[in-house]
Amino acid sequence: MNELGFIPVVFVPIIWIVAAYLLGSISFGILISRMFGLPDPRTVGSGNPGATNVLRSGKKMAALLTLLGDAFKGWFPVWLALQSGMLMWVVSWVGFAVFLGHLYPIYYRFKGGKGVATALGVLLALSGWLGLAVVVTWALVFAIWRYSSLAAIVAAALAPVFAYFLLPYKDYLILTLAITVLLIWRHRSNIQKLMAGTEAGFGKK
Questions:
Q1: Any idea where the domains of the chain sit in the sequence?
Q2: Mean pLDDT score across all residues of the chain
Q3: Which one of 2, 124, 148, 198 has the lowest number of neighbouring Cβ atoms within 10 Å?
Q4: Separation of alpha carbons 124 and 38, rounded Å
Q5: pTM of the predicted model, to two decimals?
Q6: Rg of the chain over all Cα atoms, to the nearest angstrom
Q7: Distance (Å, rounded) from C-alpha 145 to C-alpha 148?
């Protein structure tokens, strides 16, 4: 028995991981677009239900709320697991599950976003300095080249490097690497467009 009373302790990590996946499956881009009377983000622009695509609707507030919502759902379960004294491997799986839920949401036939904001939320929960390093990298790359996808790819690629030096426990380095690999994989079409010079950038014709 445990703090949940009647649930065998062996099932506690499973409950945490499944709950994190279900939370990650919530698409704030879709929900907030509906609230603002905007088209389903999966049917316009890049087809990605993320903040960048919502921003292309012209509604900055809708994009901001999408960004905050997706980041919060990545941050909250990891933060809660840490505060609850979960073992490191459980925290890592909770972080991976919420990120995976965003990429492959059960509520939307496993067709989700690319996970940039949700990944940021997970990293922020692990370390504020790690999250800040990733944000600064994204901002610098975006300011120079004006491609959101390129900024995300570079920030993701450098995240494990930052994690190696900034995380107090190296156990979470594997989680960071897994998130990096999946995030870059989800941007494979953007990488092809960047190489071909056909990627859509902000302020670019």
A1: 9-196
A2: 93
A3: 198
A4: 30
A5: 0.93
A6: 17
A7: 9
Contacts of residue 143, Cβ cutoff 8 Å, sequence gap at least 6: none
- pLDDT score of 1: 46
pLDDT tens digits for 45-73? 888 999 989 998 889 999 999 999 999 99
136, amino acid identity: V
What is residue 9's DSSP assignment? G
CA distance 28 to 156: 21
Query: Residues of 124-149 as b/e, b for ≥16 C-beta within 10 angstroms?
Result: bbbbeebbebbeebbeebbeebebbb
Instruction: Return the structure tokens found at 99.
Output: 């990120």
CB 62 within 8 A of CB 36: yes
Dist CA 76 CA 109 (whole Å): 24
Residue 152 DSSP SS3: helix
- Cα torsion 7, 9, 10, 14 to 10°: value is 70
